[in-house]
């Protein structure tokens, strides 16, 4: 990857589209070059979808639940329990963490009945010792495109882009 790839990825994050025309306008990179780089980024697995994001509140999934999960330790439990957690309906994200909490699980649900069902499904997983769930009252920031959280210079510097290659 080089600076142009990062510019394309940052523009995708900002605009919410993979349209070569719009990305070209945003980055001042020729449309044909954008197209070529998008193809390469897809082939390399950097771009994994077409970024069709959905406003969850508009479709009725307006309750966000954050659950801390404590599990019983055994060899490979993080994969086994993590997979089971990920299969629970309504679970969107599962993170294996360090510290007192083994997993953090993010779920988007539409009503209290779904929350109750979610907790029952967690309790049905044998390896889970305890859970602690919290309702989100207000979302302050929900950036699903983390590249938007950085300045371009930071991305280029942090990702180790060789500036000499960029200018060649």
From TrEMBL:
<feature type="domain" description="HTH asnC-type">
    <location>
        <begin position="1"/>
        <end position="62"/>
    </location>
</feature>
<dbReference type="InterPro" id="IPR036390">
    <property type="entry name" value="WH_DNA-bd_sf"/>
</dbReference>
<dbReference type="InterPro" id="IPR011991">
    <property type="entry name" value="ArsR-like_HTH"/>
</dbReference>
<protein>
    <submittedName>
        <fullName>Lrp/AsnC family transcriptional regulator</fullName>
    </submittedName>
</protein>
<keyword id="KW-0238">DNA-binding</keyword>
<dbReference type="InterPro" id="IPR019887">
    <property type="entry name" value="Tscrpt_reg_AsnC/Lrp_C"/>
</dbReference>
<dbReference type="Pfam" id="PF01037">
    <property type="entry name" value="AsnC_trans_reg"/>
</dbReference>
<dbReference type="Pfam" id="PF13412">
    <property type="entry name" value="HTH_24"/>
</dbReference>
<dbReference type="GO" id="GO:0043200">
    <property type="term" value="P:response to amino acid"/>
</dbReference>
<dbReference type="InterPro" id="IPR000485">
    <property type="entry name" value="AsnC-type_HTH_dom"/>
</dbReference>
<dbReference type="InterPro" id="IPR019888">
    <property type="entry name" value="Tscrpt_reg_AsnC-like"/>
</dbReference>
<keyword id="KW-0805">Transcription regulation</keyword>
<dbReference type="InterPro" id="IPR011008">
    <property type="entry name" value="Dimeric_a/b-barrel"/>
</dbReference>
<dbReference type="InterPro" id="IPR036388">
    <property type="entry name" value="WH-like_DNA-bd_sf"/>
</dbReference>
<keyword id="KW-0804">Transcription</keyword>
<dbReference type="GO" id="GO:0043565">
    <property type="term" value="F:sequence-specific DNA binding"/>
</dbReference>
<dbReference type="GO" id="GO:0005829">
    <property type="term" value="C:cytosol"/>
</dbReference>
């Amino acid at each position: 990857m080089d600076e142009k790839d990062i510019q394309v990825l940052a523009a995708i994050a900002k605009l919410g589209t993979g349209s070569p025309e719009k990305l070209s306008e945003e980055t001042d990179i020729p449309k044909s070059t954008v197209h070529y780089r998008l193809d390469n980024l897809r082939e390399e697995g950097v771009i994994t979808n077409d970024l069709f994001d959905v406003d969850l509140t508009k479709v009725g999934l307006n309750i966000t639940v954050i659950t801390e999960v404590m599990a019983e330790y055994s060899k490979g439990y993080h994969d086994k329990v993590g997979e089971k957690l990920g299969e629970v309906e309504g679970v969107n994200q599962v993170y294996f963490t360090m510290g007192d909490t083994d997993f953090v699980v993010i779920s988007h649900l539409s009503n209290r009945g779904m929350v109750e069902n979610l907790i029952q499904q967690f309790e049905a997983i044998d390896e889970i010792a305890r859970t602690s769930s919290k309702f989100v009252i207000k979302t302050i920031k929900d950036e699903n495109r983390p590249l938007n959280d950085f300045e371009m210079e930071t991305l280029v510097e942090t990702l180790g882009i060789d500036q000499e290659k960029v200018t060649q």
